Amino acid sequence: MSSSSSSTAAPSPAIQSILPRLAAVRAHLAPPNPTTARNLASAALTSSTKPTSTINMAKDKVAIIGSGNWGSAIARIAGQNVVKHSDVFESSRVPLWVFEEMIDGKKLTDIINTTHINVKYLPDIPLSDNVVAIPDIAKAVEGATALVFVMPHQFLAKALDAIEGHVAPGAKAISLIKGVDVHGSDIHIFADVIEKRLGISCSALSGANIASEVALERFSETTVGYRKDKEDEGLLWQKLFETPKFRVQLIEDVDGVSLCGALKNVVAVAAGLSDGLGYGNNTKSAIMRIGLLETKNFCLEFFNDVKPETFLQESAGVADLITSCLGGRNRKTAEAFVTTGKPFDVLEREMLGGQKLQGIHTAMDVHNFLKARNRLGAYPLFDKVYHICWDGLAADTLTDGL
Amino acid sequence: MSSSSSSTAAPSPAIQSILPRLAAVRAHLAPPNPTTARNLASAALTSSTKPTSTINMAKDKVAIIGSGNWGSAIARIAGQNVVKHSDVFESSRVPLWVFEEMIDGKKLTDIINTTHINVKYLPDIPLSDNVVAIPDIAKAVEGATALVFVMPHQFLAKALDAIEGHVAPGAKAISLIKGVDVHGSDIHIFADVIEKRLGISCSALSGANIASEVALERFSETTVGYRKDKEDEGLLWQKLFETPKFRVQLIEDVDGVSLCGALKNVVAVAAGLSDGLGYGNNTKSAIMRIGLLETKNFCLEFFNDVKPETFLQESAGVADLITSCLGGRNRKTAEAFVTTGKPFDVLEREMLGGQKLQGIHTAMDVHNFLKARNRLGAYPLFDKVYHICWDGLAADTLTDGL
User: CB–CB of B220 and A286 under 8 A?
Assistant: First the structure.
């Protein structure tokens, strides 16, 4: 196991400086029990020495593809749960694909494999020891039968290029990717893109999940949307992700779950504009209501198998929309757009370290799609966000015509 | 017209001190147009000199029963709209029942009728000149055909005692009252109580409406629920309340609209407890989702004519729940309950000037009702709020068993 062999070597000074913080954080997280990080190494060893681990060929091997803030938080849970459910999952090793970066002269993968902390994207919170950072994406997915895609959608095409041909027979995937894939009058969710490209079934997970709060084991909920008649896959993903503090609901609705995760970012931009304008809570909640309704109507109009109950009943629906409009980068950056008068590309550099603000890019994708379908008039809030963010329309026209 | 005759007398020193603030606020509100407060007096005069005002017997006469924060904000809109729609409403005079109080040695009704400001409950924001404060409730409703009930529900029974026998034939009412009327295993909304007692049809209005934001003409939405086959009444109330910045939606669902307005306060208490515990946005939005779902299930289980779409589509549903969980006294006081450790009766005195916190009292009503129906188990969040607020259960058990 690479993580345990690494941890016996003397840590570098950069890594040594992290260790006291790590110890403090470990002490603040849930007390040790058989599934917590402290005991994972021994639990994993016990599990891997069981005869069933070699005899039972049906065990799923998990790989996490992406290691940003959310990828790291999800890897932390998956690393714990494969041990808890070692009858179902190969538990000794959960490969985590990490886009290699140098941090203070050290490779990020080496830091993760030594300290078990993703110092760049989820500082202070330890991953399980069985989560192994791997810089080569093809190696990370080698032999994996349960692929978890969790990355900004801009990186997916390149990741799929590298993965194609390396996926095990009978594998299945789940997409935690936000956004929509628009080409002219065609629109696809990224679970469809993965499914089509790799020829494997792909579910979707989305919910009111600020990554750092999930990692700190604050009570949270999420939704897994599974494909028609594939509840067994939903149950597998539930097993991989559910904890007492991270509740996983299941619904047969990959489209609705995925689209909620994309479109709520557009609504969060609108909420941020409203905050920047100082409009108060009546206006903000009106915008959220209208945004939720446009989301529901959009899903039902353009996708066939969407379940109407996803929007009110599921965490992926109303709850994620609420979280995103209360906190989150889309709301915050849109607020700054109004209060500072700076354009979004400047704010992306200043506030997001150069990362793209998903809400405004999804607003553009949705605008282009609705324009191609000649349906802009039916979605006045989505359209208004587009024109304010991309077209120079004054922000204080936000509620006009809603 | 008592208001204009009063305004020609020299104002008292107490009132003179308000006038500069009033002028400043008037200047900040929407610019004068034929329906704004500045021009109401002349508009009202023009209207009342039209021959139609005496010939057309079908004109509705509005009375506002209650003059707290929300009552005053609604009276402000109604005073403007009766002028705008003087073909439908008697526009020269909108009686506003005011529970008489002494403010700096002056009667509150005299202050309102002189300055056109409810200095106690909606300071700084002028009412229309045609809104006339009246301390005698029977006189306030004399001849009125459109009765707007807007008061804490604790005062309703006494108000109805005084009104009974003074209501004009063919009158209709609308309830803006929050709460539920529970007796053992019976539950009623207050629109039903009004309807039964006065023998007149009663609609309901509820929505994401923080009174001060509505009064300041921030973009807001609300919902009017009207009785089965009585859309004409819904349209009348829409005419009385709708403005470009206060959008009134209609739905044939008095029960759902009323119950949302009551139960959201229980959810807001839960959200406040979560805030007090420092649980973050994932947890808070999970609580809001669960609360909205319990609200919907409660309405559908115990009331016959509730429309499922009220909860997601209407301002009275999801939007009001959001506003109440973001701001509002229920959230704030429940947060203080956790952070200060003080009991609610102390917090009601310290934070609410002795007024009752609706959410905890509705939680008790709902608990008693569900207990009588042996249905507590189906509403774990409502039940948890009751036990934490009234029964000494530790607040940090809030999310257990949800």
Answer: yes
Q: What is the pLDDT of residues B248-286, one digit of tens each?
A: 999 999 999 999 999 999 999 999 999 999 999 999 999
Choose the mutation target among A77, A264, A285, A307 for the interface with B, i.e. most B CBs under 10 Å. Answer: A285
CA dist A226 and A253 (Å) reads 6
Say how many domains are in chain A: 2
Write down the ipTM of this complex.
0.85
| CB-facing half-sphere around the CA of B339: CA atoms within 13 A | 12
Helix A254-276 vs helix A380-390: crossing angle, to nearest 10: 60
What distances in angstroms separate CA A81 from CA A27, A75, A93, A326, B159, one per listed residue? Answer: 20, 10, 12, 30, 60
Assess if residue B93 is contained within a domain.
yes
Decide if B322 touches A, using CB distance below 8 A.
yes
Query: Residue A95 is part of a domain; what is its CATH number?
Result: 3.40.50.720
Whether B264 is catalytic: yes
Cβ-based burial of A300 (10 A; exposed 0-12, middle 13-18, buried ≥19): middle
Nearest to A319 among B218, B289, B326 (CB): B289
Say if residue A196 is in the same domain as residue A299: no
Q: What is the 3-state secondary structure (H, E, C) of chain A?
A: CHHHHHHHCCCCHHHHCCHHHHHHHHHHCCCCCCCCHHHHHHHHHHHHHCCHHHHCCCCECEEEECCCHHHHHHHHHHHHHHHHCCCCECCCCEEEECCCCEECCEEHHHHHHHHCCCCCCCCCCCCCCCEEEECCHHHHHCCCCEEEECCCHHHHHHHHHHHCCCCCCCCEEEECCCCEEEECCEEEEHHHHHHHHHCCCEEEEECCCCHHHHHCCCCEEEEEECCCCCHHHHHHHHHHHCECCEEEEEECCHHHHHHHHHHHHHHHHHHHHHHHCCCHHHHHHHHHHHHHHHHHHHHHHHCCCCCCCHHHHCHHHHHHHHHHHHCCHHHHHHHHHHHHCCCHHHHHHHHHCCCCCHHHHHHHHHHHHHHHCCCHHHCHHHHHHHHHHHCCCCHHHCCCCC
**Residue at B73 is within a domain:** yes
Residue B86: what residue type?
S
Residues A269, A337, single domain; the answer is yes
**Over the stretch B176-222, which tens digit does the pLDDT of each residue have?**
999 999 999 999 999 999 999 999 999 999 999 999 999 999 999 99
Contact with chain A for residue B327, Cβ under 8 A: yes
Q: Which B residues 46-85 touch A at CB under 8 Å?
A: none
